[in-house]
Input
Amino acid sequence: MPGSVAPTGSRTRRIPRFDATERTLHWVHALAFLVMLGSGLVLYVPALTRLLPDRPLAKTIHLATAVAWLAALALIALAGNRRTLARDRREIERFDADDLRWLRGRPAPQGRFNAGQKAHAIVQAALAVLLTVSGVLLWLGERDTDLRFAGTIVLHDGAMFVAVALVTGHLYLALVHRPTRPALRGMVLGDVDAAWAARHHPKWAASETPGDDRV
Output
């Protein structure tokens, strides 16, 4: 139940952060990205062909994963919790005065998504569009030379490099950086420690945690 606080120990309390639809969307995107990155590197980095010498198979894996990813996103959008997805979009697209202060490196209270997470999500969404469009053009260009446009490969590869840099930073914050590691629980189990949320996302935590349940 949104806004509820469930005790998991003598003092530790959790508040729900992401529902099943949000978590599914995240992990579908993450898995597809890693498979497409791996198969794409095999195609474009000669030294890696020893890992998968069958180039046509690597290309098939790359294309099949891209199609499965797009189909999965469409299925989640249609069958998932559309109210939750709409809420996420509103929150991510809205930058208030506190977010702008945070981006300038000044202390400012943050909501469920901090300003960095919002910017990351927006840039990743734009990169996904660029990778999809350029990938389709590359696929079509192999079948019709009239659809081969100069710069398509550069666009596809450039978007990939930017996405890899962002994902690397994302993984560091989720797995290595001690202050932000507790956030991973929210994307795995759906809830986070209430005390951690109050420190890192106080505007959101205050609205989710009843006053008499604060830790």
Notes: Residues 19 and 190 are 6 Å apart (CA to CA). Residues 115-141 form the longest helix (27 residues). The first strand starts at residue 6 and ends at 7.
